[in-house]
Design goal:
The structure is a single chain. By secondary structure, this protein is of the alpha+beta class. Helices cover about 45% and strands about 25% of the residues. The chain has four helices and five strands. The chain has a five-stranded mixed β-sheet with strand order 3-4-2-1-5.
């Protein structure tokens, strides 16, 4: 299950990401535990789901710990009773992959997909 996407950027110090989290920001505690330095850049939400897409920048030295934390997020979601998290991530990943077919994504592409997803 893919719950994060690497975004294209031109920084030599950080990497941009988008990831799926719960509206109560359950990933934040995992980032603190893993000592990940990141900067919040924005989020996208929908009224009909408890999940949101978070945009952030992570220092390159913390990328491995950031991705490990997001791998552990799935388990945390299950422990807290959010059994549909994997399905929600799968739907978002399928939509992104069908539309772009890319490994790295541009923020404007993600915004277009979000609006398309919200309008359906």
């Amino acid at each position: 299950m893919k719950n994060y996407w690497r975004m294209s950027n031109f920084s030599i110090f950080s990497v941009s990401y988008a990831y799926v989290d719960h509206s109560s920001y359950l990933a934040d505690q995992l980032f603190v535990q893993n000592k990940v330095t990141m900067k919040f850049k924005g989020e996208m939400t929908r009224e009909d789901t408890p999940y949101c897409i978070i945009f952030c920048r992570v220092l390159k030295k913390d990328v491995e710990r950031f991705e490990e934390a997001l791998c552990r997020l799935r388990d945390k979601m299950l422990l807290l009773g959010h059994r549909d998290y994997s399905d929600a991530c799968g739907e978002i990943a399928k939509m992104i992959d069908e539309e772009t077919g890319k490994v790295e994504y541009d923020l404007s592409e993600m915004e277009k997909l979000y609006h398309k997803y919200n309008d359906s």
